[in-house]
Amino acid sequence: MSENPSASPSTPSSSWLPRSRRSPGEARRVLERLLADTPGGERFLDTGRLLVTELVTNAVLHGTPIGRRIRLVLHVDRWRLRIEVHDARGERGPVFRAASGEDESGRGILLVKLLARQWGCCPRDGVGKIVWAEVAPVPADPGVDSAPGPIPGSTPIPGPGERAA
């Protein structure tokens, strides 16, 4: 197997979380530990915290039947943070909801769409689905774009209701 000399190695992390209202907080702690141990990891922290919270909350509320667990998989390298949330309900994908200004919920997937470089949902081997999002690093110098364009070798996956280009 040949290696791409310009590719940076990915640091992975995987955790099982219960179907619990405490799981989004635990997911944030897992993310924070991973990024603290990753050189440059702080560049992904703010957006990563928000997206991991939204994705795990959706899995707890909508994607995981009682008695099943959620799998959180994180990969980080110098170009991206990839957040994957695996749940057991494959027949229900993420849904955009029209939330009014008075609603206290219903904006999670919209936030994911707006903040992620790319995101998507795909079937999981066995039972369920994977909802994933990729986060670009915040540049160390705000005047410099740290990752112009898509990640090399990646293929954007359209969100629900969108068509591939």
Task: Give the structure's gist in a few sentences.
The protein is of the alpha+beta class and 165 residues long. 25% of the residues lie in helices and 22% in strands. It is built from three helices and five strands.
What does this protein look like?
The chain is α+β, with helices and mostly antiparallel strands. Helices cover 25% and strands 22% of the residues. It has 3 helices and 5 strands; from the N terminus they run βααββαββ. A 5-stranded antiparallel β-sheet has the order 1-2-3-5-4, covered by helices on one side. The chain starts with 10 loop residues before the first strand and ends in a 30-residue tail after the last strand.
How far the N terminus sits from the C terminus, by CA atoms, comes to: 31 Å
Structural class: alpha+beta
Total helical elements: 3
CA radius of gyration is: 16 Å
Strand-residue fraction?
15-25%
Query: Into which percent range does the helicity of residues fall?
Result: 10-25%
Tell me the overall shape. Answer: globular
Which sequence of strands runs across the widest sheet?
1-2-3-5-4
SSE order: EHHEEHEE
